[in-house]
Amino acid sequence: MRFACRECGRTEDARGSIYACTCGAGPFELQADWKLTRDLTGRGVWRWRGFLPRFGEAPPVTMGEGGTPLVASERLAAWCGVRALHLKIEGQNPTGSFKDRGMTVGVTAARDLGRRTVLCASTGNTSASLAAYAARAGLRAVVLLPEGKAAHGKVAQAVVHGADVIAVRGDFDAAMALVEQLAVEGHGYLLNSLNPLRLEGQKTLAAEVVEDLGWRAPDRIVFPAGNAGNVSAAWKALTELRDLGLLRDLPRLGIVQAEGAAPLARALRAGRPDVTPEKAETVATAIRIGAPVNARKALRALRESDGAAAIVADAAILEARDEMARAGFFVEPASAAPVAGLRDLVRRGEVDPSEEVVCVATGHGLKDPDAVPKGGIRSADPTLESLRRLLA
Q: Does some domain include residue 139?
C-alpha cells in the first residue's frame, strides 16, 4: 500500500503523516493490490476487508457500521421527476452518519500504527464519529469546531464520548488549517478526509449500492458535498470494482451544494481544476465548507463520470427535507440536499427523467434538531370529549 499523487506520480509511505502532494494537486490517493470477489461473508464495512487497508492483525475497531438500507421511494421519485429513486440511509450507522464508515478504518489504522491521540476539525458529524471510535479504541480524541457553527446534536455526541472539544473563533476552514498544523507538530493522528485511509472506509458506501442492486450500477449517484470526500471515495470504489471485474458499467455522479457554500459546483460549471474558497453559510451545517480539501479529487471524479452539480437555496433544501419526512425519512438538512438538487437538475434538463438514481442521505434528522420547525403539537384536556373535538 502506498499514497500516490494522480497528477505527478509522487508516492509516500501509507504509514506516514504526509497526506497531500507538494505539486499542489491536493490529497494523495491510496494505491493497493486489492483481493476481492463477490463471495462476501458477514455484514457491514469489514465484510469488504479485501478492499480495505490494514496494518496489523488485531480485530478492527468496529461497532457494526455499514450495511445500511437502500430504500426505493416512489413518492420521492415522482416529486423529483425520475423513473426510480433509492435512498441510501446512512443515518442508521452507529453515530447516525456516514462518517462511521471512514472512522472505523481510520481509527483502526491509528491504533495499529501505535498512535495514542486522534485529531479532527469538524462541522459536527466527523467529531461525533471520531469521539465514539476513539472511545471504543481507548484513544484520546481532540476535536476543533467552528464556534457557534456546529449543530448541538452532533457536538453533544463528541462531548459525551469524552473528546477534548475546542471551539475555534472562526469557520470550519480555519479549524481545518489549525488541526493540520497540530498533526504536523505531532500532537496526534489526523482523521479528517485529508487522510486517504479514512476515505477507504467510505468507499464501501458505493460498493454496497452496486451489490444491493445485483452488482450493477444505477444511472446516477447523488451526494451532498462539503469536503467532498464521499464523491471522490465513491468514484475510487466504482473504478476499482470495474478493474477487478466485479462491475461492468459505471454510473454518473452528482453533487449538490447550498447557494451559500458552493465552491465545487461553481468550479465544475466554470471548468476550473480547483475551487475558489468561499465564506460558507447555509442551514445545512454538515456542508457549510468553503474550501473543501478533496476538491481536486472530487472535480476529477465528476468530470470522469460525466457528472453534474446543482446549487440550491436553503429554502429548497428544507422543502426537500419536509417532503422526505412525508415519505417516511427523517434526515438532517444536508441529507436532503441531494433530493433538492436532483429535482433541480431534472427541471433544468441535466438529468433525464428515465434515470434510476440513488441519493445518499448522509445523516439522521436527530443530528440537527434545531433545524426542525417548532410547533406541531396541540394540547387536550384529559377527556375523550376534548380529544374528539381536536381529532374532528
A: no
